[in-house]
Amino acid sequence: MSNTPHTLGEEFPGQMDKIHALKVSNPVFAQLLASYDAVNDEIHVAETNVQPTSQDHETELRKRRLAIKDQITHALSQLA
Predict the structure, then answer these.
(1) How many CB atoms are located within 10 Å of the residue 21 CB?
(2) How far is CA 18 from CA 1, 21, 27, in A?
(3) CB 1 within 8 A of CB 38
(4) Do residues 8 and 33 lie in contact, with contact meaning Cβ atoms separated by under 8 Å?
(5) Residues 10-26: pLDDT tens digits?
(6) How far, CA to CA in Å, does 49 sit from each of 46, 59, 64, 69?
(7) What SS3 state is found at 42?
(8) What is the number of other CB atoms lying within 10 angstroms of the CB of residue 63?
(9) pTM of the entire structure?
């Protein structure tokens, strides 16, 4: 989706080269990125009421996105 907030580029400014390198070399990390994008898209759909959802479900999605973001952050910190 276009104009989706919380894209990886926004969340990790200046680190897209590292993200790409890890994505290409590590299939587990690549799956983590795919999961982040999928959850982020679900949140965007809920926020824009394209597919309304309960507040509890939306909160759970946000928590899942944050947990995935933490995993991405950890993986990136291991490259330093």
Answers:
(1) 12
(2) 23, 5, 14
(3) no
(4) yes
(5) 999 999 999 999 999 99
(6) 5, 15, 19, 24
(7) helix
(8) 11
(9) 0.89
Residue 34's identity, in one-letter code, is A
Domain borders along the chain are 27-80
How far apart CA 3 and CA 27 sit, in angstroms, is: 27
What is d(CA 3, CA 53) in angstroms, rounded to the nearest whole number?
20
Q: Token pair 């809920």 is at which residue?
A: 46
**Cα torsion 47, 50, 55, 60: sign:** negative
- Residues 44 and 4: their CA atoms lie apart, in Å, by 6
